[in-house]
Specification:
This protein has 287 residues and is mostly helical. The chain has one domain. The chain has 15 helices and no strands. It is globular and about 50 Å long. The two termini are 18 Å apart.
Length: 287
């Protein structure tokens, strides 16, 4: 049975208002949560933020030259000295590192990696896609319902978005889709404008309309609003437990991003995050 964190959830609006919006600090919120939830529940918060670590890992390994994202769990120095610190990272990152660099941990592990590389080569997918598949294989087997549903949504959402972009540019989507399931098969084969997904994916029309926008910022804003709304829907009946807190962190991450991309949009989303917290708390009191 899930623990309830009445005091913590009730205090989230106040924690938000105490922050300087120009320097909105999600990590400070994470630290506050860490001090008030069980270790097992906080591990779920850390897992939720692994995509930021994935981003930093790929950025360093593939020499992308992008800015470090500080919302992950692992500190910058680990990625700056990746060769020396690879053992500190999750096993799926280690596996990918050794596959890409050609380095070996031991004779036994080298044999395993060669066999795995042969299997993956037959799939003919991009290396980054194979890395994401290894991550999602772990994410979709988490014991927590919210994490499973959220990462399933993230994978499918990004796959549909990728397929739409590939269709516009005349690129084969197959090597760029994460996973092999009914959806990826449909996205590769269907010629319908909505891939025939109108009854399977409720956000498909919003997604198609959004990708038609020429304004890059407006397109990104609406994509994030789909993510925002989905995180809210996934916690409809969660008021004080860890699932509610996980949903909160997804939206806090979106606010963090937009306060840096576009101040006006960031302010609007900050207010919405605050209002959503207040309304959720008021509604929970009725039950």
């Amino acid at each position: 049975m899930m623990r309830n964190y009445y005091y913590l959830v009730a205090g989230l609006p106040e924690l938000l208002m105490d922050q300087d919006r120009k320097d909105f600090n999600v990590n400070a919120l994470k630290q506050e949560v860490r001090e008030q939830v069980s270790p097992s529940d906080y591990r779920l918060v850390e897992f939720l933020h692994l995509p930021y670590d994935n981003e930093n890992f790929l950025n360093k390994l593939l020499n992308r030259g992008l800015e470090f994202n500080d919302l992950g769990t692992f500190e910058r120095f680990i990625f700056d000295e990746l060769d020396e610190n690879i053992q500190l990272l999750p096993e799926y990152m280690q596996d990918f590192y050794y596959r890409i660099t050609g380095k070996q941990r031991s004779a036994e592990e080298a044999i395993d990696e060669v066999d795995e590389a042969k299997d993956l080569f037959e799939v003919e997918k991009l290396p980054e896609v194979l890395f994401l598949e290894s991550f999602y294989a772990i994410a979709l087997n988490q014991n927590n319902d919210f994490l499973r549903y959220w990462f399933s949504f993230q994978r499918d959402f990004n796959n549909v978005l990728t397929a739409l972009n590939c269709r516009r540019t005349g690129i084969d989507p197959a090597p760029q889709l994460v996973g092999n399931n009914w959806l990826t098969e449909v996205l590769v084969k269907s010629q319908a404008a909505d891939f025939g997904l109108k009854h399977e994916i409720d956000y498909i029309d919003r997604l198609i309309q959004t990708t038609d926008l020429s304004d890059v910022l407006e397109r990104e804003r609406k994509l994030d609003l789909i993510r925002w709304d989905t995180s809210v829907e996934l916690t409809t009946w969660d008021y004080f437990n860890i699932n509610f807190i996980l949903g909160f962190f997804i939206r806090a991450g979106i606010v963090h991003r937009w306060l840096r991309l576009d101040a006006k949009t960031g302010e609007e989303l900050f207010k919405r995050l605050f209002d959503d917290l207040k309304s959720s708390y008021n509604l929970s009191e009725k039950f």
